[in-house]
Design a protein that fits this description.
The protein has about 425 residues and is α/β, with parallel strands linked by helices. About 30% of the residues lie in helices and about 25% in strands. It has a domain of about 90 residues: GMP Synthetase, Chain A, domain 3 (2-Layer Sandwich), CATH 3.30.300. Strand 17, helix 11 and strand 18 form a beta-alpha-beta unit. The chain binds zinc ion (ZN). Zinc ion binds next to loops.
Length: about 425
């Protein structure tokens, strides 16, 4: 236990130092870690042995990061279709592993198996992000989640105290805990933060003032960002990750984009800087069920300019969410949520919105406005019509609430067409 705590501290310290390492040093560490991980995966994990044999790839073919694209890409479907014994290393009993499941909101869930080393690595990866944003060991955290986490070693000694509340409980009860515990840090998915802020407004309370609010798991819509900032008194920090890989990209306080935790993850964007491309990611610290060159299904844009904050980590200028969360028009052009935000973000009255593609050119915009302020609806509609290609038929409706299923990611752009 003591050893586990010490190892976690050491991992966090190294991770924080790596934010300012010269690019060459980061690259060397990534290469060394990946080399070991490839040899481990090929030698011990049946799925990788098959995948790499099929492609004629051997771990020794990887000499430097210049060879990265010679490593076969792991597709989500392949991982889902494999038996538990095929995805974990020899000698590991999947039934004795900790597990996490993806939400499966766009298909069947995927189960990830974690050993004690992986769990420690994931904790360090998560904490590093908090520390990058001014976290202190004495800070109390309130976390809103579907599954409540365990108390672990250092928390038994009063360090980093944490309260968990269930996403299934009514948001008013979260507010009650917020008032009772006065946390310095609040961590939740963007949808839960939105609900928390709304509940604070409904109860007519003053902002409770946590120092740090972390939003993860879902796209943090600018409308949610504004509402949370207004009602909790702190602008949320957007953190990106996947259940499969832990959190690995986080917003910089200079708002230059998202820094990638390059000491723990290798993130590739298959497009030139400034253009959205598929995100391929590798978790360098997961050994029980390695995830190497995984096609995340998400799209992001690279930033080639350095960040004024001085961190040398790679930067993602923009995250577009999942590739499936796009409107694909019949001519093949794609519209992602940032496109809609460019227009809708001008209207501070908008509390929430989402766009549904009913078929081909027919789009429906659903908006949530405060009671009695549907005034700008006609202007919103006119502005969006002007921005959209002429053939698009737009319908706008004001609704009371955007429906959300607890535990599922909220989606701002949804296509209901099977084919564009
Ligand atoms: Zn920065």
């Amino acid at each position: 236990m003591l050893l586990d705590g010490w190892k976690t501290f050491r991992l966090i310290r190294t991770a924080l130092a790596s934010s300012h390492w010269p690019a060459q040093q980061l690259r060397r560490v990534q290469e060394e870690q990946l080399r070991k991980l490839l040899a481990h995966a090929y030698g011990n994990v049946p799925l990788y042995r098959t995948l790499y044999d099929e492609a004629g790839f051997r771990p020794e073919h990887f000499r430097s990061l210049d060879d990265l694209d010679t490593i076969p890409i792991l597709q989500k479907q392949r991982l889902k279709a494999a038996h538990p014994e095929e995805v974990v290393a020899h000698g590991v009993d999947p039934r004795r592993c900790a597990t996490v499941d993806t939400s499966g909101s766009t298909g069947t869930p995927l189960r990830i198996y974690l050993g004690s080393h992986d769990l420690r690595w994931q904790r360090a990866v998560a904490w590093r992000i908090l520390f990058e944003h001014g976290f202190r060991w004495t800070d109390r955290t309130l976390e809103i989640r579907m599954t409540l986490g365990r108390r672990f070693f250092i928390q038994q000694f009063g360090l980093a105290p944490k309260e968990w509340v269930s996403i299934l409980d009514p948001p008013e009860s979260w507010v009650q805990r917020l008032v009772e515990t006065q946390p310095q840090v609040v961590v939740a998915g963007a949808g839960a933060l939105q609900a928390l802020a709304e509940a604070i407004a409904t109860l007519g309370l003053e902002p409770p003032g946590p120092r740090l609010v972390i939003s993860d798991s879902e796209t943090l819509a600018p409308t949610t960002r504004r509402l949370v900032h207004h009602l909790l008194g702190t602008e949320p920090v957007d953190v990106f990750g996947l259940v499969e890989l832990a959190n690995f990209a986080w917003e910089c306080e200079q708002h230059c984009g998202f820094h990638v935790s390059a000491d723990s993850h290798i993130v590739e964007i298959d497009a030139p800087p400034g253009e959205p491309g598929p995100m391929i990611a590798t978790a360098l610290g997961m050994w029980t069920m390695p995830i190497i060159r995984y096609d995340t299904g998400d799209l992001a844009e690279r930033e080639s300019r350095p960040c004024p904050c001085g961190r040398s980590l790679p930067i993602l200028r923009r995250l577009y969410g999942r590739a499936v969360d796009a409107i694909v028009l019949p001519d093949g052009s794609r519209l992602f949520w940032p496109f809609f935000h460019e227009v809708l973000g001008r209207y501070i009255e908008l509390q929430q919105w989402r766009v549904l593609q009913e078929e081909g050119h027919r789009l429906r915009l659903q908006v949530v406005m405060p009671t009695g302020s549907i005034g700008p609806l006609a202007r919103i509609e006119a502005d969006l019509r002007e921005a959209l290609p002429g053939e698009v038929v737009l319908q706008v409706e004001c609704i009371e609430k955007i429906p959300q299923v607890p535990g599922e990611k909220s989606r701002m752009v949804i296509s209901r067409c099977s084919t564009p």
